[in-house]
Amino acid sequence: MKEAQELRVGNFVKINNDLHLVLYAIYNKGGRNAAVMKMKMKNLNNGSIIETVYKANDKFNQVFLDKCDMQFLYDQDGSYTFMDQETFDQIDLTKDDLGDAVNYLKEQMIISVSMYEGRPVGVELPIAVELKITYTEPGNKGDSSGRVLKQATLETGYQIGVPLFCETGETIRVDTRNGEYMERVR
Amino acid sequence: MVLLFFQICLADSDLIAKWLMMFYTALMPKEKSTCLTIDVFCQVIDHFGDAGTAWRLCRELQELAGKSITLRLFIDDLKPLASLVIQPSIPDAIQVIDGIEVIPWQAISVWGKSGAHPAEVMIEMFGCDPPPCYMAKVPLFTRLILNLEYFSCEAWATDFHLRESLLDFSGPRKFFFMPGLDVHSGGIMSSSRPSYPTDKLQLSARQAWLGQNGGQLEWAQRRWLPIYTYGQDLDSLLKTLAHDEQKTLVLVMGQASQDALRSNILGNGNDLKSPFTVSDLGQCTVWFCPFFSQVSFDALLALADFSLVRGEDSLAGALLSGRPFLWQLYPQAQNHQLVKLEAFLAYLQTAWSDEALARLYNQAAKNFNISTESVWVPWAEIMAAIPDMTSDFSLVSASLRESCNLTRKVLEFSTHFSKGV
Question: Which of these, A166, A174, A154, A150, lies nearest to A182 by C-alpha position?
Answer without folding.
Answer: A174
